[in-house]
Inverse folding.
């Protein structure tokens, strides 16, 4: 049997969108996935007034951290539920990092990190669930790699498992979430 | 990881309360503290515990209920946001003198930033003013630990203890271990002791002497003494931190490779600061940097400040949240090293401002108020409807209930002017119960010519749809007595009180006009704008309005009156003069915008 030593998971992710889009939900799913992988996890979330349609942002830190906030140029990646979020939070992404952005068109102007656009709004319309952009974007991020390495610390089956664990008594919600996650994971609307 | 669970800071606090035998919990909702009480109820239900939990009408009442329960020997807690403690400051000051029997915790959640508050005030200063100890957690995990320490401290010294979590603790999530649930099995009993529980000024003086003695002892209490985080390091520089700043600095010192060079002390109990710790800092003669939020509470207790850097000398910013990027620069500067990336970053683009939800009944009310009194003065209050500012329908707000007293202030100032403006005050149902009633009585007594529109959406919406005294249900869904707002308004002596539905725009405009006419000629008038919040899932389904699917006709000439004056997020456009479209994902189907378009271009 071959023994391989994998380095401990150490990942910082910014999740952003507009209040009501489900930024909190995907942050929590990723945090639960970290828990399943027996990692320490810290998040910081926006609650209160900004949730009423204002810009919201979550910081997610998986691994050995003590501060709940990510410093500029320290995030491995950015998940943006609105195209405008990349301009607001690009300063957090480290050189060589990545951003997965919900956008109907390719986004240019960023050279220090890779930008992957996915038209999650159109995918959401295609599955008849306009509120599912958050899980579609998460699914899309789970399907991508950078130089052969998956973007996220967890994979598609991990998030499926988290959804099953979190919604044992809500089969309809679970089904909707799984369909959306799959629509993102198998999306062909990348730029 | 078996026993670890992902918990929001407020959940961890609630778990700490449950594990440590809390029997009674009260609160009034306010960001960032709102989730504490509901989580207490959930944990109690899951663990099959007997516990009384309730939303109170305001923080003062919540405080007095929980404090008094502790006099019977039970452990109790009151939680609130920092400005709520202003409301509860009256009983706080006295409770410190009289002390308690069972443990009594005051959780006052601060909001440096501020993210969702009127001020950045530091509750630790309130603890200092009241002369009670305060614990300052750095994380959800530590907040939970501090519940245990707080109850022990409160019972050892018979003194209320404050826990001061900041937004980054309340609304952080972390993997936190469950602990065992202590069964205290106490039988509540009240031992009469008038010199203490009904102390007259003479006895108060004695209680004050006793309080000072308690504080001296607490400043030597070992369990809450500062921690030397890297005890192997004894250098000529030391950093003293508390609260969330401690969490940032631990990570930053490691990232800057300073962990083994600069001593880091974490203060757990910023007031009273441990005497031996102050002596140790002063004796060592090392250079000291103090990082804390938001007022220099620790710093000002260090008598010899010659070698102390912090907020008092401007080394650390006195205003705003201490973000880790700012702390990194400060620490690097203090240590004499370069902070990691010193390249210039593009400034952050401003985000979207928050707005009332599509279909929010407040938007319809504000539109009607502006139609009925276009040149009015609009005083408003604390709640979702503060966002009426975007619509030009909110000119002022200060604090809970002030809409009514501000209306009175404007009236008294302007009443003899030849062109006295109409004055329209708006506040929500929960805010009316919280602090509006005394102000309304005053306005009746002084016969203030104004209109009060109570935006009765049947809930406390901004903080997450907690029930109000008129909801008829408590925090766990249990039935409660429902207080009748109309009867209350009439009971205050108001002669004009009528209720309308803001979705029925023409009738509601007409009702507000009638009220204005009454206020000009006779006295205060109250309009109750009743329509449940669309986000409130606890409302009975039959109260949900029918969905009216609207569309924009070719009559739309792109004037954007609707976007500017109604600002519904479901009314969108592609450019400055393009026609308006309805965003089907956002539209709630309230149909109110049909009455907004001056060109009649929005129809069913």
């Amino acid at each position: 049997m071959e023994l391989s030593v994998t380095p401990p998971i150490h990942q910082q992710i910014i999740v952003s969108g507009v209040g009501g889009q489900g930024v909190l939900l995907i942050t929590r799913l990723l945090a639960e996935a970290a828990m399943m992988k027996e990692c320490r996890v810290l998040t910081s979330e926006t609650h209160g007034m900004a949730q009423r349609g204002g810009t919201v942002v979550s910081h997610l830190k998986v691994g050995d951290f003590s501060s709940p906030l990510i410093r500029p140029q320290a995030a491995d990646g950015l998940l943006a539920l609105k195209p405008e979020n990349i301009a607001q939070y690009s300063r957090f992404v480290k050189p060589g990092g990545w951003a997965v952005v919900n956008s109907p068109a390719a986004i240019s102007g960023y050279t220090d990190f890779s930008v992957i656009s996915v038209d999650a709004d159109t995918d959401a319309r295609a599955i008849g669930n306009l509120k599912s952009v958050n899980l579609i974007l998460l699914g899309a991020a789970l399907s991508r790699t950078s130089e052969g390495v998956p973007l996220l610390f967890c994979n598609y089956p991990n998030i499926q498992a988290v959804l099953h664990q979190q919604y044992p008594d809500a089969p309809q919600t679970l089904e909707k979430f799984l369909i959306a996650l799959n629509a993102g994971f198998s999306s062909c609307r990348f730029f | 990881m078996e026993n670890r669970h992902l918990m929001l800071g407020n959940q961890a606090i609630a778990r700490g309360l449950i594990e440590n035998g809390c029997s009674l919990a009260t609160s009034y909702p306010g960001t960032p503290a709102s989730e504490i009480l509901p989580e207490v109820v959930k944990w109690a239900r899951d663990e099959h515990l007997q516990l009384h939990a309730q939303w109170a009408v305001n923080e003062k009442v919540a405080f007095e209920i929980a404090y008094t329960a502790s006099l019977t020997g039970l452990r109790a807690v009151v939680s609130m946001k920092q400005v709520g403690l202003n409301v509860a400051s009256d009983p706080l000051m006295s409770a410190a003198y009289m002390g308690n029997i069972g443990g009594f915790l005051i959780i006052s959640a601060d909001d440096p930033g501020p993210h969702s508050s009127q001020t950045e005030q530091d509750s630790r200063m309130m603890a200092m003013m009241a002369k009670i100890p305060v614990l300052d957690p750095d994380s959800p995990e530590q907040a939970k630990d501090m519940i245990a320490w707080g109850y022990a401290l409160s019972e050892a010294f018979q003194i209320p203890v404050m826990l001061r979590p900041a937004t980054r603790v309340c609304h952080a999530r972390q993997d936190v271990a469950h602990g065992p649930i202590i069964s205290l099995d106490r039988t509540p009993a009240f031992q009469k002791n008038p010199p203490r529980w009904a102390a007259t000024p003479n006895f108060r003086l004695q209680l004050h002497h006793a309080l000072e003695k308690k504080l001296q002892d607490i400043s030597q209490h070992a369990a809450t003494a500062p921690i030397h985080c890297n005890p192997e390091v004894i250098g000529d520089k030391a950093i003293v931190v508390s609260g969330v700043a401690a969490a940032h600095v631990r990570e930053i010192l490691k990232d800057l490779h300073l962990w083994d060079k600069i001593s880091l002390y974490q203060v757990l109990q910023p007031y009273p600061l441990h005497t031996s710790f102050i002596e140790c800092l002063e004796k060592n003669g090392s250079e000291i940097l103090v990082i804390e939020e938001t007022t220099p509470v620790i710093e000002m207790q260090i008598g010899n400040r010659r070698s102390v850097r912090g907020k008092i000398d401007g080394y650390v910013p006195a205003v705003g949240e201490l973000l880790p990027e700012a702390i990194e620069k400060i620490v690097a500067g203090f240590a004499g090293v370069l902070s990691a990336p010193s390249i210039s970053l593009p400034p952050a683009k401003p985000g979207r401002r928050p707005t009332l939800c599509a279909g929010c009944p407040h938007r319809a009310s504000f539109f009607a108020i502006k139609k009925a009194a276009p040149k009015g003065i609009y005083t408003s209050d604390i709640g979702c409807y503060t966002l009426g500012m975007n619509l030009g329908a909110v000119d002022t707000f200060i604090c809970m209930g002030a809409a009514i007293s501000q209306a009175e202030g404007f009236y008294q100032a302007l009443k003899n002017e030849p062109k006295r403006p109409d004055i329209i005050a708006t506040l929500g149902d929960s805010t009316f119960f919280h602090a509006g009633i005394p102000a309304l009585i005053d306005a009746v007594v002084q016969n203030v010519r104004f209109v009060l529109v109570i935006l009765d959406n049947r809930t406390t919406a901004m903080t997450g749809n907690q029930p109000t005294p008129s909801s008829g249900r408590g925090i766990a869904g249990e039935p409660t007595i429902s207080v009748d707002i109309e009867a209350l308004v009439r009971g205050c002596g108001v002669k004009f009180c009528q209720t309308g539905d803001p979705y029925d725009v023409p009738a509601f405009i007409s009702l507000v006009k009638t009220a204005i006419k009454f206020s000009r000629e006779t006295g205060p008038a109250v309009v109750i704008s009743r329509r449940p919040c669309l986000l409130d899932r606890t409302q009975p389904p039959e109260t949900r309005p029918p969905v009216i699917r609207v569309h924009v006709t070719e009559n739309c000439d792109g004037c954007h009156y609707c976007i500017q004056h109604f600002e519904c997020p479901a009314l969108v456009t592609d450019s400055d003069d393009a026609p308006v479209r309805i965003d089907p994902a956002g539209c709630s189907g309230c149909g109110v915008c049909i009455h907004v378009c001056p060109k009649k271009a929005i129809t069913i």
Notes: The mean pLDDT of chain B is 95.
